[in-house]
Protein 1
Amino acid sequence: MFDKKYLRNFDFIMLATVCAIMLISLGIISSATIINITGDPNYFVRRQAVLFIIGFFVMLVVITTDYTQFYRFAPHLYVLNLLLLGAVLVFGRDAGGAQRWISLKVFDLQPSEFAKVIVIISLARHLVSREGNFDSPFSPIPFFLHIAVPMAVIFLQPDLGTSLVFIVIVFGMLFMAGARVRHLLFYAVSGIAVGLPLMWKVLKDYQKMRLLVFLNPEKDPMGFGWQLRQSMIAIGSGGLRGKGLFEGTQSQLEFLPAQHTDFIFSVLAEELGFVGAVVLLLLFLLLIYRIVRTAAVARDTFGSLVCIGVASMLTFQVLVNIGMTVGIMPVTGLPLPFVSYGGNSLWANMIAVGLVLNIGMRRHRLMF
Amino acid sequence: MSKSMLKRLRIFMLLVFLAMSVLAARLYWLQVYQYDFYFARAETNRIRELPVTAARGEIFDRNGEILVANRPGFTVSLLDLPKREQPAVIAYLSELLEMAEEQIREAIAKQQFRAFAPIRLKRDVSAEVVAKIGERRMDLPGVIIETEPIRYYAKDNFAAHVLGYTSTIPPELWQQKRAEGQAYRLTDQIGITGIESTYENYLRGNDGKLFVEVNKHGRRIRVLGKEDPVPGHSLHLTIDARLQEIVESSLAEVIQDGIAAGNTQMGRGAVVALDPRNGEILAMASYPDYNPNTLREDILKLQSDPNDPLNHKALRGGYPVGSTFKMAVAVAALEEGLINAGSIITCTGRKQFFPGDVPRACFDNRVHGALNVRDAIARSCNIFFFELGVRLGIDRLTTYAESLGFGKVTGITDLAGERPGVLLRRQPGRRWNPGDVLTASIGQGHMISPLQLANYTAMLANGGIHYRPYLVKEVITQQGETVYRAQPEILNNPGYSDRTWQAVQKGMEATTLPGGTGSSLRHLPVRVAGKTGSAESSPGKMPHSLFVGYAPAEAPEIAIALIVEHGGLGYQAAVPLTNLIFSRYYADR
């Protein structure tokens, strides 16, 4: 049953913020893909618009389903998630040296994108079961194990960027759940001390190069270093007001790598300038603020934790993606939420925001 | 919600805000603070400059007749040939342009990431090739026809050695020019010889630029702008095209007639005509010559020709002077007061001058009897000049000969590669026989170039003034502005007395009168003064036939030196050649 109260409590500002980011995204995708392999200048922007509309309906379904259902089916979702991730390893489509997709004829499914949202749900339920029980320094360990399995599978694809998102999610949610800050700091520091050298052994050379190149782009003048420099040239040359939509020389002349996906922010910053870039940052800040605000008013801890999980995920992805394009973060290949071209990331993020909207509008217990 | 959770939410939000602020600060740094730097980088990323070849300056004769120009040539180039179409297009072009497919593929490979610049496949193709490519336009994507100025020598062989030729810059020269701070592209044309080489800096012009926007693959997106090339400056030469043509055709005629008459040793020759009043070179011909328009096709044949058509004989040839040297001896003797215009020496036809020396004779043992200097020159009496040589001694003779330019360069700067020649003289450490002065007195043992001989003749005509010979009168920009105007330059004037010059000139005038060695020139419409020469060449070969002279004798405007190798005695080849030249040149007098 749909209650009028839900409508009153619905966070239209959050939805409008997402729509505004989407509109900017469509404009930039349009500009970035005027010249593309299909020969149809509107191919990508049309496709992304369709994906957004489909995503909107998916989000509606998520919103209208009482989120307690997600709580209930969290373990099932977790298992389904592992099955899908496993399927990627077995049936996955190879692209650019990584297996991330399952080909479904019209659409390539990328389970790792949805895994983030599923883990947020299952981790929230897991945390709720231990609520108020974080005195022991060992108490966070089960939650690390909770994320470790999906994270490891994704790491093996290999998709380092996405697997790192899980770490941020677990720390963010543990923090909200009430874990001791000193415990979290201890695990963070020791995780870095132990995990980093370990990871270094597993990483392939091109991954190491991608991670380090932002420190010294000259080291790899032809590959990632070149990409990075082109991105910084694009952004820097945009100046205060930008060169105008469709007028970016770096993007229109194809100097930018992956300019409608990972490096779409470079196109935005070149064509819309510092002003446009800051507007986008403010929109993200507003979106995350509304999510955090929802966390504060949620009717239960599960809701609050899901909100914080979503906020952590979005913040980290924005920071890492934009940080990469401006040369202060490693090249990890994380898409910019709601802006980069591609359906999986878009839908996963819309589902995540749908969950938050859901939690927000059900903030007061309903009287029967 | 508990208070502690709210506090943690605030901390969380603060961290998010900090993260966004870091990004905003970084963006401010890149986009506002370092904007100029990155904007410049973006511009150099997208803009490439393509050179637009400037047309080379044109060359005219003294009367404005065009000698060297540029004609539009068609070049077949590739611009952005789609990969899919490559094999078919390459195969077709290979056949049409008669190039190996491999060559075309190499050219394409070299241009990777420079697809904005056309790949030049073949320069100066025929109109037929252009038409064929035009017909198949649709099947030949990326194949373009560019027009480029091609050097064009309007009169083919005309003054070929003087004008010189151009070619694609050789790698050594490219490096040398680079070291001198002159930037040439490896495909640039440059003057290799002659005026084309010495006046390269005036002729070359400044290339223009085409600003092209490219993408990251170097593919041309559009043309942003253009900086027009500045054509090279025009040269106006001292050469008189009419005289040059007469000289060339007459020289060829005499040599070919001689060969036809059975003198197979003939085949080379050179003529230089100067204006004795200022040093302007009016004509400068070397035989055989070549056609610079077809040089590339002819080069192998030319290089294997025993008569060496590429050699600039008029400038760089070395010839024995023969009897044309006798005026120098006369000047020395007159100037030293050993004789005067009326002094008589008796020719007995044959005389032994030094004990142990072979008896010396006049040509054919002819006995000239009592002679003054005028008749001695006119009839080319050896005994007379042997006697003067003995009286002068070799050292005084050397001094005077040098003052008249023997054994020295003329100082021409408009052409490169002049050599000083040889003056037979006493040299420390080398044995000197008393009889050697006799050899020197009749011009044997010295070597001289036709240009030097003409300069000597001009000094005889103008009373001893050595002007620097020059070829370029004026350099004029495309706008008609004069950037260089040659001034006659006196390099030397020994200041000998008028009486000396007059006595010698009288002798040269008498040469072309009845009884003189060049008496056949007396029928010309203009009075010619001169002197024949028959210079011993290699043993068993015909002597070189020489003539030096000037006209009109009473007010000289042309001083000329002619050498027909192995043409026989002076009157056999060089005098008839002089006759042809002057009769044609002064035909309307």
Protein 2
Amino acid sequence: MSLKIERDQRRFKQIVRGKVRENLKKYVSHGEMIGRKNKDLVSIPLPQLDVPRFRFGDNGNGGVGQGDGEEGTPVGKGGQQRPGGVGEAGSDPGDGHLMEVDMTLEELADILGDELELPNIEPKGNASITQEKAKYNSIRSTGPESLRHKKRTYLKALKRHISTGSYEPSEPTVTPIRGDQQYRSWNTIDKPEVNAAVIYMMDVSGSMTDEQKQVVRTAAFWIDTWLARQYGGIETRYIIHDAVAKEVDEHTFYHTRESGGTRISSAYKVCAALLENELPPSEWNLYCFQFSDGDNWGEDNERAFGTLKEKILPHVNLYCYGQVESPYGSGEYIGHLQGRFGDKYDTLITAEMEDRDAIYDAIKVFLGTGK
Amino acid sequence: MSTPNSNLTPELAEIQVEMEQHALNYGLDFFPTIFELIDAEQLNAIAARGGFPVRYPHWRFGMEYEQLSKSYNYGLSKIYELVINNDPCYAYLMRSNGLVDQKLVMAHVYGHCDFFKNNYWFSKTNRKMMDEMANHGTRIRRHMDEVGVDEVEEFIDACQSLDDLIDIHSPFIKRRADRDPYGFEGGAKEEPEQQERRFPAKGYMDSFINPKRQPNEEPEGEEPAPARRVPEHPEQDVMLFLLEHAPLQKWQADVLAILRDEAYYFAPQGQTKIMNEGWASYWHSTIMTREGLTAGDVVNYCDHHSGTLASSPTRLNPYKVGIELFRDIEDRWNRGAFGKDYDECDDYQTRRKWDKQLGLGREKIFEVRKVHNDLTFIDEFLTLDFVREHKLFQFGYNENTEYYEIESRAFPKVKQQLLNSLTNMGRPRIVVEDGNYRNRGELFLRHHYTGVELDMKYANDTLVNLERLWSRPVHIETVLEDRQAVLSFDGSEHDIDWGDDADEIAELEVPH
């Protein structure tokens, strides 16, 4: 049996990376994942290249499904993930026999880590804050009925029956008496508490289109997933800005569009205030991510750098700046930022994200430091 | 039946003999079946190539492999078995599977093999496809050596984009006299005269043995040929039409012919997904529960079996629907619950308790597996009771919410929707209407609109590939937003014609 799948695989990878057959690259789609709805189930992004065929669109399309639900119950989203009638299944040649397994966000984060070779994060400082926690890990012979350990009680009763010779294999009735009862009990342990917070800042000025926001959203999803996995839960804050900045909730963050100019320093001010008032750096591992198309007002740069240097950079684990490419081109902020701070601060990381494919590289740069 | 050699462990070989005997006892009839035990990586590689160990090189197989192996490594999916419609039948088993799994899978495989051999829709498929695929690989590799990898690959991509434009019924209906696919250079006009004088020749020798023009024959002037349409009748086998009429180089024609052959080979599997899986599942469950299971196997068996039959709201599981329908048919024919009397009876209790003790069930399902495909299977045997019992519903796209939503549980709607999605394997029906459109050698296709629009982005990209093969502007007539529209691509620009010049379209609507 000759198996030269490697040749095809290599070829595919070359195409995905745009090394050969550049005209095909536009068809590369990453199986999108943002599907947190169904109990944290997600699909993992694998690059795919679609062969265009005459096929049915969404309009007027439908299918047959099986299960409960009233009329009007949504069963699937339009657009890319098309729910197929069985007709769809016919497109797979051969007789593959596939089973799907659900995946949690934690597992997904691990896969991301493997895939991008991300190092585990070492929390900064010593975990100075400890918290007392009750852990149910021992057994007592007294306790409330609600904590009765049925299995152990049964075992103990069984042992007593056998040792006293009152056990009848033909009629195996086991009756626990008072002395057989076993109850769960707890110990208090000191657990170091590690807090982590992520602050996202995004430019919502007119030059940022929905496409850029989608890039930011995808990147933020992966960052959240990874950091949440590393710290076991994180706090997230969102700041939007054009010429002025404000803190907003997640929905507003992704859906606001302003038309004003861009003043990055305004966002830094809000961020600095947040660090000062709500997330004291002594107690938190702090991560700041800023996304912009890099078109800042020239005279604002100095003020922005001042705030960044004084109030933010010394306090955070990481400060990441991701510059997305807008239809109006990419700004110069990233260049200024690098020129000004260069290698002086190892907490500052910058990356350019031209398109969706660059997201994964950017994440690798951001989180590859293990901080 | 002899057990052909394979690399099964002695233990598995024993199980195979046992399973094969059970299958034979139940009356299954199959080609010799060769089981190969391979590890996950190899299985994924073979599955990526549509079940064949050797095929032509192409990045798509690499992509499939990438996905299969990744999702296997992440524990997301796992292939239990692969069966190839071939004589002998090849079946691949994953080495790491448990013994009960292997047992079940073997029973399942015999179900598939029986189906491949006996279902009429498979009767015209090439049973030596394993070899044929390898030959295709060699031919395409040779072309790549001659004209370059990129060029051939690009051409394959263009062909793949059209490879569902075939006439799935053509293997069974002779729509016209056969033509030698390689002799298309002669053109349609001379063919009637030439045919008698032709010596039999292989395609590649043809132009030497049968010169295009007889020596004593003078080229006549433009004879007043009757204005013939090309094609004479709308041609659903677009690939064949291109093969015969597009200005292709030899290697291009060869590549196109290869892809068309493979498309026809795979078509019956697409047409019988529900039946094929249903039949195989029916047999693995029958054989395992009645013969194969030991007490220790039960839990593992149930786990696997229920995993295979799990249903999801948006995707009808062919395994599930198939096995339940076969069981339903068996039960109804055992009870005699069919025919005029039964159909006219509208008392629920009487229908439920209907039992004429005919015991025809087994016989009936064997007949069903012989003559039906999914479309006729559903049409004939999907009943109101079945739809209710299995909670089937019909869903549709809601433009306002951009979601697919449950629309109805009414039996006629569910059935109609299911039939629609099975018609022409769920693909739009597209025919070549005119190969000399506007008398300018342009290609005119027509989409038979059935209420669902084409995906515009895909349609436009497909036109680009079509134009690559045809080398002249291409058009497709369809319906968009309830209006007739012609999408065109002339090699550089896309265009939509909303039918302003109504004459031209009226002229094309000659009834056939």
Protein 3
Amino acid sequence: MTETLTLDKPRSPRRPAARRSNFELYSWLFMRLSGLALVVLVLGHLFIMNIVDGGVHRIDFAFVAGRWSSPFWQFWDLLMLWLAQLHGGNGLRTIIDDYARKDTTRFWLKIMLYASMVVILVLGTLVIFTFDPTIA
Amino acid sequence: MPTTASPPTAAAGASRRSGTLYIGDPGMWSWVAHRITGVLTFFFLFVHVLDTALVRVSPAAYNAVIETYKTPLVALLEVGLVGAVLYHALNGIRVMLVDFWSKGPKYQRPMLWSLLGVWLVVMVPGAFFMLQRAATELFGGH
């Protein structure tokens, strides 16, 4: 190996093409795209469930069974579940990064966040797909 | 050698206000409110998926939990939830317009007042329908 003289290049026009990830760019974009979809999905859901036709007072097991007999509402709820959980999870990730001062605090808060996201996504998806209106 | 800077003199902040409370800019508060409403909604979603998952347990279990939601106190919480989500949605649209619309940054402040106006116009009748039954139950009458 020959030793070469290396000089700093303070005015180098390009940043070194190190292993830079675009994850934050994609998560930023995802927040906007999912947010746009969630405006329709969530506000529609809240309007139907809370305001129209007696709101929460008409909701019971039979009501849920009636809704999930339609693939349209199954898909609506599934999409809303995934987008909302990823959108909210990403938002909380940002907030943890902003306010957690110690690395260990940040680490454990994120473990809790990711664990809760997995639980909710798996459970919610399972419930939508395996719903049985004739359950005893 | 002192390591800390000398405390600010009373005259420094007295020109505008005598207190020390940082008032901030409406834009900052819209961001604070966006965070708070987002976190609240995320925690609600956690509980909401768990309660809905009871449909896989039994109709009785699901109905028993939903029954507790049909009370005046929870009706009030619902109004809070809808209000929080609606603000988050409207402000989210504002954020997108600021990011993607060429005139967004210029109009960010009027857009904030507009979204608060829209929020109020939607929430007044919305709260009416959500609290109608609770008010009847609490105060009687038909």
Protein 4
Amino acid sequence: MSEETPTVFDADDALISAWVDGRLSEAERAGFEARLSREPELRRRALATRVVVQQARRLPQVAPPRHFFIQPTAAAQPKPDAPTPRRSAQRFMRWAAALMAAAFVSLLMVDALRPYETLPPAQPAMLVQPMATPPEASLPDAQERGGAAEPSMQALAAPKEAQTAPTMPPPAAPAPLHPLRVGAGLALALALVLTLLAWRR
Amino acid sequence: MEAEHEADLIRQAQRGSVSAFNELVLRYEALLFNVALRILGDAAAAAEAAQEAFLSAFTHITDFHGGSFKHWLLRIVTNACYNALRYTQRRPALSLDQPLGEDSAETLGDVTPAPGETPEEVALRHDLGRLIAQAVLALPVEQRVVLVLCDVHGFSYEDVAEITRTALGTVKSRLSRARAKLRDKLLAEAELLESGMRLEHERGDANSV
């Protein structure tokens, strides 16, 4: 008895149901009842449905085993889903932490996608300056041009400096952090702090 | 007059009066328990669902903004039944011959005897009632809820649509499918069906077709 038997649903079942409940219009009822007199199977189903409905309406009402009164203590209970101040603060911090984490990720992505040209120009570690004219070569030239036979102290000093190339550039000032990276760092720090606070509460 | 008194009780309950709410409980507890009983098929589970429904109704009574209080309560208790069935993952208990209470001999399969019925007629009606009560519990839960409200408790299609918050067409469809399933169970018991039809005819319940 308890096993389910598949029931084929058709429009007639809807008609039968409406007929049993007196929900058909006059014309519909007359047409349906004409069919009932012609179609024994439909008539059988309709009458059986009516027996079902009538019997269902006769199923007894059972007295409850006890009263279901609410105890006055229940009145003091807050609604299970009512937001308490603590829960609200916790929810706020959770949302804020999520927002900060999202901001951190977004800033990192924007920073990564930034065009390379906009980065501050890289400072080479060493500047290789072109070699100055060697003194041996410059002295005969000067003599050929009829200049002074003895090179001046300045003329001698300059090639010496040039010979020390490659030279170390003056120490460059540390490049300032890009604002995007500063923002990402702040967002990450805030996200961590808020997560910690929300978790502790 | 009665409606005014009920509205007054609801207003008092909304201001926090437990005693006013308990008057409403007294008024509707039998209905809610019986609806839950026919949906869940178990007296203890039905009592639990009814209690949960009243507690939920009390804690959310300020959310009630007019309309039918009875329908509002029925919506809450049917939701409690859905939850009970969902969380326990059980089918309704088929304890049709089990007494419903410690001090009661009533079972789910009992039927209310009509006045002047002979013992044979009462026995036949008992068999029919048992068959139908069992078939109701075997229905899919959405169809069961609609059939219990419409056929067992006599609510109109429109009322059931409001209680279950479903479209009128859905209510009609679920009801006709549920009735068809019950009818097929009955058709399988040809002897019982013939007796049932004869009984209805003799009692003058049947319309002339």
